[in-house]
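Tokens as discussed.
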């Protein structure tokens, strides 16, 4: 399914370097302190699907349900999300750190082969893979894209949802996966 060109607008901006700016390595080190929910973004369908681990996902609106996901333009999921005009957001629970490593490419498993991991995959409204035992699975139709430097910001309309109650979210902070715990 290709997104109608009338639904997608692409805005491209490139940051202009300035004297005394922050270097990328320092910025990445600083951003490791930002705690984020760990998700697996998925795209495609059987035989041509891919996924990636991401923390750059957040709610945009609840009326109507919309979210944003930031994806590096060199990621295998980027082109497939654009081509199919759909993506899945699978928020992981604390027992799924190894699955996050698989989809982060740390185990040498590529594209469709990554979907052999986990406890099964569902197909909801768009046909994008949704992890059956994810804490939350959101099936999204791509409705907008904004290209920015090395990444695209994808705006998704949530078309279907799979929710699993009672699990602790997996988060990424300080360069490691962690379980969310109550503050002391």
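Sequence:
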């Amino acid at each position: 399914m290709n997104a109608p060109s009338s639904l997608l607008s692409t805005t491209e901006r490139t940051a202009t370097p300035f004297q005394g700016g922050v270097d990328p390595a320092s910025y990445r080190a600083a951003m490791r302190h930002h705690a984020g929910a760990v998700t697996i973004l998925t795209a495609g369908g059987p035989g041509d699907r891919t996924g990636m681990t991401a923390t750059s996902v957040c709610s945009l609106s609840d009326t109507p349900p919309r979210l944003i996901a930031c994806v590096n333009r060199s990621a295998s999921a980027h082109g497939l999300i654009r081509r199919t005009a759909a993506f899945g957001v699978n928020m992981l629970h604390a027992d799924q750190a190894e699955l996050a490593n698989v989809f982060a490419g740390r185990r040498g498993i590529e594209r469709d082969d990554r979907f052999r991991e986990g406890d099964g995959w569902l197909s909801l409204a768009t046909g994008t893979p949704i992890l059956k035992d994810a804490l939350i699975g959101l099936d999204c139709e791509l409705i907008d894209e904004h290209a920015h430097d090395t990444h695209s910001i994808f705006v998704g309309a949530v078309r279907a949802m799979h929710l699993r109650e009672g699990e602790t979210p997996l988060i990424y902070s300080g360069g490691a996966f962690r379980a969310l715990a109550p503050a002391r």
